[in-house]
UniProtKB/TrEMBL annotation, chain B:
<dbReference type="Pfam" id="PF18324">
    <property type="entry name" value="Isocitrate_DH_C_bact"/>
</dbReference>
<dbReference type="InterPro" id="IPR046997">
    <property type="entry name" value="Isocitrate_DH_TT1725_C_sf"/>
</dbReference>
<protein>
    <submittedName>
        <fullName>Isocitrate dehydrogenase</fullName>
    </submittedName>
</protein>
<dbReference type="InterPro" id="IPR040978">
    <property type="entry name" value="Isocitrate_DH_TT1725_C"/>
</dbReference>
<feature type="domain" description="Isocitrate dehydrogenase/Hypothetical protein TT1725 C-terminal">
    <location>
        <begin position="20"/>
        <end position="115"/>
    </location>
</feature>
Amino acid sequence: MLPGEGTGPEICEAVRRVIDHSGVDITWEYEEIGLDCLKEHGTLLPEKTIKSIAKNKIAIKGPTTTPVGTGHKSANVTLRKMFDLYANVRPAKLIPVLKRPWDKIDILSFRENTEDSYAAIEHMVSNEVAQCLKVITWPGSVRIAEFAFKWAKANNRKKIQCVHKANIMKMTDGLFLEAFREVAKKYPEIESGDIIVDNCSMQLVRNPGQFDCLVLPNLYGDILSDLCAGLVGGLGFAPGANIGDNCSIFEAVHGSAPKYAGMKKVNPSAVLLSGVMMLKWINEHKAAERIEKAVDKVLAEAKHLTYDAGGTASTDEYADAIIRAMDTV
Amino acid sequence: MSTLNATTGRAKRPAQKITLVGVDVYVITEDGIPKFDEYGPFKIEFISNRGTKVWPGYVSPDLMLVNWYRCRFTATRPVTDKDVDQFVSELGKKYLWSAVQKLWNYGDEAGYSKAY
């Protein structure tokens, strides 16, 4: 458990209580990460935390803060790169209580998590010109496509689209698309296609129900998965998984919301649903489904909703309602 | 729209004093993480692969490496373009490289990113 900073610790504590009540037997190891850690130990990611993740090969993480423009690097990106967590899986599914103008949204984004313009290769090549290298590799593109098709097949998904801008970035996005098409040949049972990222953005807000699974390079994946989260009700309900071949870290899409730290009012659903993804990943399906059903029940009853969902419940009251609901579902 | 038409030239960013402090060399090799000796005034600081630091420090055994490494060399004394030319010439005897990027400080600020 990496509680993170800002609202992270209070969210993670609520999530731990819910998961512990689900019947799954987890021995939690708490480790530090993030800005508070930097102030105290001089590093965002202490050696002890790295060793713990390397040993356990699985973690659930609260939010951390990354400054814009200057300052330290992102702890999230450092973790993804260090453990080569190349597949960022972000589901976006309609939540009935959050009234949205759509009948159906059930989109699964598979974002390549380690390459693209996130390779952190930037230079000021003159005082007026900055450049950032966009790094797309063949093996990196093949493995995210393979991952997406395998996941889709295992979860009975019907269609995967590769999102790109290969009409303009013919080499980088062209390579990504070529790898996707190559992998798609091995999965004829799944419908595959591609869509240009700008058109995809427009189609997502016009008719999101047409999409099933999306495979995207890092930057488009970051942006469009947030867009998908917005379509279904905001980041408070947007879980995520960062998965590598031998290690996985589950975390919400949202940030640490430092202005709400200590107020115990934020919605823990995104981290909790990330925990549900974690339980499924380690084959604890019974516990995962129990939590999912309890969350659905609490949301449907709409008596204990956090402020972002139109209620007044605190983080703990919402978690307590889910715990009580687990005993009845 | 007279204000747009009245533009007298492109926007300019104030110039700053630049100091050459090192080079990033992009090396292509199938033989794993390169190993470097000191090359005159240039000393290896870190090596990254796909933007992830692979030397020095912890490297996950799961990390996928491609055959292209960014090798950052920092200058151990004030250097000139001539030093860079000699350095690249020496390095090229041992390694195939695809590009060399000079690292400048602009005033007191580094004009280059670090690796993750």
